[in-house]
Amino acid sequence: MKAVCWYGKRDVRVEEVPDPKILNPRDAIIRITSTAICGSDLHLYNGFIPTMQQGDILGHEFMGDVVDLGRDVKTLSIGDRVVVPFAVACGQCFFCRRTLWSLCDNSNPNARLAEKQYGFSSAGLFGYSHLFGGYAGGQAEYVRVPFADVGPLKVPEGMSDLQVLFLSDILPTGDMAAENAQIQPGDTVAVWGCGPVGQFTIQSAWWRGAERVIAIDRIPERLEMARRFGRAETIDFDAVDVSAALTEMTGGLGPDACIDAVGLESHGHSLDALYDRVKQAAWLATDRIHALRQAIYCCRKGGTVSLPGVYGGLLDKVPMGSAFSKGLTLKMGQTHVHRYMRPLLDRIQGNGSPGFDPAYIVTHRLPLEQASHAYELFNMKQDACIKVVLNP
To answer: pTM surpassing 0.90?
Structure first.
């Protein structure tokens, strides 16, 4: 089969690799119909996540048709069309029983690596380094799905791939980000980053009761999407000082909730942003945290800072004194996708609410063979690229 393989910093290639096989009675083999490039994939592409090996198959946002099943999978049938959550979860451990799916104790076969890095291991992740299990990803023609009796969600008849594909990651990630922000009716919510996760975070902030949503970015087409589809007020951080703008827009109070949908590759022009770049380039720190610092400084006293943006290692100059003295709540973590898939599917279908079509974020659809070009477009934000879907 063809698959998108990692070979080093900004070097991904579409190659012929062996077809996946059933290895465990709870496995399924999925023929991929649609797969997407996530902002988190760019952390791999740009070389910031350790334990990648040449030839690793990328991709954790995917869906397709069931073509083979292990004997213990009773919840699926050959021919079922499914969307698959990016975290691998057993369904039976302490954390899965508490719907903390991305913290599964049993799905990372390389748990010792993660324990050395983080103290404990989280769940295995598709296509996201050997630190998180070394699972082959879904930017391919076929993929093996472990614990297939737990993760995959059957797609109702009549729904297009683009309506449901993003249930695999970024739509639940946006919703969990808004939930973690503890939004109350009437709140003002500021969202750093208007990439795909930021766009869906904006939508979820409205669904969860926000009165105002303010979106922060510097890319014109992303800001326009936030205004047009997200009905958000926007701040271009290339044009104005974000802290001053938010202070003025909130009457000096600050946003009730601040959501960092950027993560470890944040951009900026201030002294601390330049400091982050130098430290990261010299491997003296792993993450650039300019957006997180801003979120902490700008959030009102007693507010909440939510972090859906991925952080990978050690941070420098975190303003903990500000967070402590203002009594902030910080909530974060990999998304418990399984928990959100069905409620969000209901929202897309319009069950109990107006229907919602997530397809508006897709700006580019390309064949799998053009994945290398697609990664470059997305990484460099060329051709007004916001979200790429690949079709095998």
So the answer is: yes
